[in-house]
Design a protein that fits this description.
Helix content is 24%, strand content 21%. With 92 residues, it is an alpha/beta fold. The radius of gyration is 14 Å and the shape is globular. 22% of the residues are buried.
Amino acid sequence: MLYIYGATAHAKTAVDVAEDLDIEIGGLIDKSLLIEDVFDYEVQLHHRVKDAAENFFVAVKNPGLRERIVSENPEWNFQSLIHPKAYVSKKS
């Protein structure tokens, strides 16, 4: 089960990629009280790990904030999301 930290534009992209990869999404986590759901996935203020099979993706644009989220949650298992149609040119 994947939880996405963040609930703005980057998180919407992460939801799309996770769905395309057939990854089950448990919800999103965000500190904003103004956002209740994203694409019908519930947004929580906090999350406590309940199962070792839970994974997390940080969908936050600011690199300093991403680093802080990761360092403040060492018990979380973070994963990358790479769209199956992603392409990197050998000429770049």
